[in-house]
Amino acid sequence: MRIVPVPVRSDNYAYLLIDEKTKEAAAVDIYDVDKVRLKAEEEGVKITALLTTHHHADHSGGNAQFVEKYPDVKVYGGSKSVPALTDLVKDGIQFDIGKDIGVT
Known about the structure:
By secondary structure, this protein is an alpha/beta fold. 21% of the residues lie in helices and 38% in strands. The chain contains 3 helices and 8 strands, in the order E-E-E-H-E-H-H-E-E-E-E. The strands form 2 sheets. It has a 6-stranded mixed sheet. It has a two-stranded antiparallel ribbon with strand order 7-8. The protein is globular, with a radius of gyration of 12 Å.
């Protein structure tokens, strides 16, 4: 796994969690869709999931816009307040990003 920071505001970052084998990535706390999308293109990866740490706009503000452009992307979050949520994460839930990144 490789982690790539993406500056999205003067005081916040999004991150790409990249499975280097499959070139699939999860974007963490996407706020600025264009900045994150451009960084993914630069890294040569496809974003297959969004991971949202919490529902505040400076962390989840790009979710709905991203899903509008890429409707097959899963959106993981720990609250039903997360915009565009597809998968609610609770204790014991496990999922994968690509083939080599297991999230528990």
